[in-house]
Amino acid sequence: DYIGFIERTTKKMPNGKFVDVNGNVLGEHSGVYNYTVGQRKGLGIASNKPLFVVDIDVKRNIIVLGDDEDTLGDTLIASNLNWIMFEKLEKEMRVTAKIRYGAKEAGCTIFPMSDNKVKVVFDIPQRAITPGQSVVFYDNDYVVGGGVIE
């Protein structure tokens, strides 16, 4: 019970605003910890079309809602990297990647950055790239490494 744990171990998060991708206020949410990027159900917002969580701005206590296509992204930055096949990524590399448990592997290119980070550019946009989730890189059947999505 994730929400119960958060409520028991932290101070109550204040309600905040739901806004659309243009910044228009759509309603009030019950605390950012109750939502995740890509979520559609349980938002409590009446709309003539399905709405999805596109972004969560914890500092401003705002949740951005949009269409399903607004959840798509083709690029991410990963940090806290752990390489299996080598010590450090020295040059760009073609791999496949999974951005969550149960996701299908997707073709991408990873580019080394400073500070033990990589830029990941997917061939096809991915749904709900979520900060804090793990990304795992594969070369055929072998795990190359992984990191945490920023």
UniProtKB/TrEMBL annotation:
Residues 74-149 form the tRNA-specific 2-thiouridylase MnmA-like C-terminal domain. One of its GO terms (molecular function) is tRNA-uridine 2-sulfurtransferase activity. It comes from Candidatus Dojkabacteria bacterium. This is tRNA-uridine 2-sulfurtransferase. GO terms for biological process: tRNA wobble position uridine thiolation. InterPro entries: MnmA-like_C, MnmA-like_central, MnmA-like_central_sf. Its EC number is 2.8.1.13. Residues 5-66 form the tRNA-specific 2-thiouridylase MnmA-like central domain. Pfam families: tRNA_Me_trans_C, tRNA_Me_trans_M. It is an enzyme of class 2 (transferase). The keyword Cytoplasm applies. It catalyses: S-sulfanyl-L-cysteinyl-[protein] + uridine(34) in tRNA + AH2 + ATP = 2-thiouridine(34) in tRNA + L-cysteinyl-[protein] + A + AMP + diphosphate + H(+). The lineage of its organism: Bacteria, Candidatus Dojkabacteria. Keywords: ATP-binding, Cytoplasm, Disulfide bond, Nucleotide-binding, RNA-binding, Transferase, tRNA processing, tRNA-binding.
